Amino acid sequence: MSPLPPPGAPMPHYVSTAPFDPMATETMTAAQSRIHLASQKQLMWWKFKQHRLALASAVFLIAVYLMIIVVEFVAPYGLHTKNVDFIHSPPQRVHFFNDGKFVGPFVYGRTMSLDMDTLHRLYSDKPDDVQPIRFLCRGDAYKFWGVFDSNLHMVCPAEGGQMFLLGTDRLGRDVLSRILYGARISLTIGLIGISISFCLGIVIGGLAGYRGGVFDLIVQRLIEVLQSLPSLPLWMALAAIMPVTWSPLVIYFGITIILGIIDWTGLARAVRSKLLALREEDYVQAAQLMGASTSRVIGRHLVPGFMSHLIASATISIPSMILGETALSFLGLGLRPPITSWGILLTEAKSVSVIAFYPWLLFPIIPVVLVILAFNFLGDGLRDAADPYK
């Protein structure tokens, strides 16, 4: 043990003046050093990967959105292809073995007979008619994105055969192909609509919470008026304004704008409440003293502080947009043919008698449920990952 210094002498200095090297710390393990040196994005990614359900939902949604880019190639039939000999044909099963021998994926051919008592078509399989399913084949012609002519499909029925994996509708159109085509409209409406509502919510709510005063008072009264109106009648009224003479593309963007304008109020109020709490923080006052503009203070310093809440709001709002379009189209007030969406497909199953005899016409509701669940699971994972220090 070293002796104590004499009274009045300076205490010995044991702090090293050498530059600090975190990798040279003996007590720090490799895993700890990896975490300490990781960036914010790396921490978020590691936290997100721990949420297995959110990761699987992200993969599913990415696959779905990539599919709608090449839906003409993925769908086995064209959007308007009619098979008049197979109206209201039930779904066909895919088989792999015939008479104990492996054949590969195939379906059996069908014959149709008419029930004279109910006048309903009855279909039965022909075991001797094996129709192999083709892959990367030539089928119905289409114009890819309205530019390139092609007839290449990922999967096709046999030459001269039929393949209706989800059945057909009242005009003999393949339900599976129409569900795939309808995904392009229903899913993009959610993205475009949330972009509009996000911009309105962040800008209006951010200014109301940051500035306060008369502007905040006006915004709050406007939000209260909009939120007091019933959503469905408001949608119906705004959708009825659009003339029937408008083109389907204009109606599509009109419905998107309507959904975006209606949905911004909840996000704006949430942004306002957060900014009211954060605008008095020291780092905000420091940015103001340094001459930062209002847009920079809000966008660079305040909004990142509650990004997890914004991410959760976005992933929850997208399903509400999809449901809004589906409800409007189902009621005949939204998109109209020849545009095809999941809501328009569900109009085929409005009556109880149709559902009783042709239940496969309800299949378009399955992708709606799957996509909404995937967005909700993804929102949970992103919300947790946005704040990896918790």
Quick overview of this protein structure:
This protein is of the alpha+beta class. 53% of the residues lie in helices and 13% in strands.
How would you describe this protein?
Strands 1-2-3 form a three-stranded antiparallel beta sheet, with no helix packed on it. The chain has a two-stranded antiparallel sheet with strand order 4-5. The protein contains 14 helices and five strands. It folds into two domains: 92-163, no CATH class; 177-385, Orthogonal Bundle (MetI-like fold). With 390 residues, the protein is α+β, with helices and mostly antiparallel strands. Strand 2 (101-114) and strand 3 form a beta hairpin. It has helices spanning 30-36, 40-49, 52-67, 71-74, 175-211, 213-228, 231-241, 248-278, 282-289, 294-302, 307-330, 342-346, 352-357, 365-385; strands at 95-98, 101-114, 121-132, 134-144, 148-156. Helix 5 packs parallel to helix 8 (248-278). The chain is extended and about 115 Å long.
Computed over alpha carbons, the radius of gyration is 30 Å
**Helix coverage percent of residues?**
40-55%
User: Strand pairing plus helix content: what structural class?
Assistant: alpha+beta
Strand elements, count: 5
Strand content: 5-15%
Stated plainly, the CATH topology of the largest domain is called MetI-like fold
Q: Could you say how many structural domains there are in total?
A: 2
Largest sheet properties: 3 strands, antiparallel
